[in-house]
Amino acid sequence: MTTYSGTIPAELAREEHVTRFDIHQRVQHFFLMVSFTLLVLTGMPLKFAESGISKWWISVLGGVEPTRLIHRGAAWVMIAVCVYHALYLLYGIIVLKKKFTDIFPTKNDFILFFQEMAYFTGLRKERPRFPRYNWREKFDYYAMFWGIPVMALTGLVMMFPVVATRFLPGWVLPVALIAHSDESMLALTWIVVVHVFFNHFVPGVFPFNPSIFTGKLSKERYKVDHPVEYEKLTGQSVQSKEGN
Ligand code: HEM
Ligand code: HEM
Question: Fewer beta carbons within 10 Å, N or C terminal of the chain?
Fold first, then answer.
């Protein structure tokens, strides 16, 4: 059951949606998504080069050299997104005096994590009451802080082996390949099984969650997914609801 009380700010009252992501966040995510997809589509056939489907796909792309070239091009796009994000944060903090505290991990995230596990296993009837970012969304965000550096550093070592071995011992080359290759499987599995699944394939959201593409999410969905944030924005109380 959902109940409302209090007065909603006039601007928000007129809207059917809540603005969740600004244009910079959406542009960054777009290029992250496109570069990641290209990196997977060109990295995987190189990793599993012996399989028939890889041979077919590499021939579609024009051969091994074009495949490697697309991989390296997409890698620079991903690195550029990281630079963009760093500048976005710096500008926000220094010029706009933003604190970005919504994304900080807190003790409450652990409590919400266990509450959600209890909800998934049927031990709890009500969904946990999430703030602007739930524990999974925060995890997604921070996972990139080690995931992208691992992929980019090991990838750059392979891209510039002569420069790399001027400063580092020769064994870093095979180690970089193994780390890059193994981490790529982890990243792909996480994005498909957790990120895409929980963002699009859950009941009530399937088939599509528009938030990161349009920047907006319907008020009804916001109340279910981020009731604490909704209450902060509108001053209306949202009571926990059973199911989705
Ligand atoms: C491949 C297809 C992808 C789809 C369809 C997708 C979809 C989405 C959606 C719908 C959201 C918004 C969720 C919300 O309302 O909070 C989101 C957020 C986000 N995405 Fe993706 N994404 C994709 C790929 C990626 C990749 C490759 C990365 C990173 C390497 C990524 C990183 C993030 C981050 C950090 C957020 C903000 C935190 C969050 O909400 O989880 N996404 N994505
Ligand atoms: C972010 C920066 C990245 C850089 C600089 C980079 C660079 C490279 C380079 C230089 C290679 C060797 C092939 C070649 O000579 O072109 C390679 C291979 C590969 N990359 Fe990346 N890459 C990056 C990100 C990624 C990502 C995000 C994925 C997938 C999630 C990925 C998956 C792979 C795979 C599967 C291989 C083949 C490994 C093998 O042969 O076992 N890469 N990458």
Answer: N
